[in-house]
Amino acid sequence: MSRNFIHIRDLGPEGARRILARAGEMKAGRYRGRLLEGRTIVMIFEKSSTRTRLSFDVAIRQMGGQLIFMTPAESQLGRSEPLRDTARVISRYCDGMVVRTFGEERLAELVQYGSVPVVNALTDEGHPCQVLGDLFTIYERTPDFSGLRVAWVGDSNNVACSWMEAASVFPFELRLASPSGYTPDKERLDFYIRAGARISVSSDPRLAVAGAHYVNTDVWASMGQERERQEREQAFKGFCVSAELMALAAPGAKFMHCLPAHRGEEVTDEVMEGESSIIFDQAENRLHVQKAILEWVFSE
Ligand code: CP
Ligand code: NVA
Question: Could you tell me whether strands 66-70 and 118-120 are parallel, antiparallel, or unpaired per DSSP bridges?
């Protein structure tokens, strides 16, 4: 039996809450388990990474496992060996895969043809490990999500999609502001709203940020969109999270960014370095939450 972690909803509402609680215990040092002892995990990264790569690497080692890091450039993936073949080969050697890739259908192919668990380390459509880490960062400060308002300012990208998904699992209100042409896909938005998410969408960052307890943003051009960079710089003018914008948020509001950030584009240096910024807590929490995710995946 293999258990995959592709979406936050895979955990179910109870499971998602349990991940946050377990991450808290792990962060407090109350975890000494060696669940991955004797297991080898391959990390297949088709895009660059600092945080995700390092935090999974450290998590796997701390849990007693071994890991192999693989990119297309140094494997036959870069020479067009089909994923379905790669998945079956990996399943003969390894006990799990942590995968960062482009379209989510690539993860689906690995799940379909492989016989070991697959963990989503970012696709074009989502970044569930990041957003679970961010939810834990919120939970540490304000464990009751029900009265919380979270703002998202910028592109309706992979991280934003996982935030929309999170709003269907945890009872906070999500207010997105994106320029026209960069708003969330309607079908996806409707799917999460039908699943119970409270999400509103506008093209006014001030509307999204007014009264928010947490203000989130991300780069204007994600990995794979480098060629659109100039066009996006034009479209996203006015979507920079500045101290003036943060002043509209609730008293004591926190600024969040998954990183890496482009200072002077989606956020000012002043906000990045300011008192409201919790960006490095977010980065740290990737480690604790991913250990809890690995435990969920491998204790089945
Ligand atoms: N936030 C995040 O996933 O960062 P990396 O791209 O460095 O892994
Ligand atoms: N949206 C960004 C997130 C990076 C962690 C990207 O996909 O490049």
Answer: unpaired
218 catalytic? Reply is yes
Report whether the peptide linkage leading into residue 82 is cis, meaning its omega lies within 30 degrees of zero: no
- As a whole number of angstroms, the distance between CA 70 and CA 112 comes to 20
> What is the position in ligand 2's atom list of the atom closest to the CA of 259?
5
Q: Ligand 1 in contact with 51 (CB < 6 A)?
A: yes
**pTM of the complete model beyond 0.85:** yes
- C-beta separation of 16 from 169 below 8 A: yes
Q: Cα(104) to centroid of ligand 2, in Å? A: 14
Q: Is 241 in the pocket of ligand 2 (CB under 6 A)?
A: no
The answer as to whether 2 is a domain residue is: no
- In this prediction, residue 30 carries a pLDDT of 77
Q: What is the torsion angle, in degrees rounded to the nearest 10, for the CA atoms of residue 122, residue 128, residue 134 and residue 135?
A: 180
123 and 226 both lie in a single domain = no
The CATH number given to whatever domain includes residue 161 is 3.40.50.1370
Side by side, the strands of the sheet bearing 118-120 are 66-70, 40-45, 96-100, 118-120
- Ligand 1 lined by 130 (C-beta under 6 Å): yes
213 is catalytic: no
Does any domain span residue 246?
yes
By residue range, what is the domain housing residue 109?
A: 8-127+285-298
Least confident interval from 25-39, 223-237, 255-269: 25-39
**Is the confidence at residue 300, as pLDDT, over 80?**
no
Catalytic, 286? Answer yes
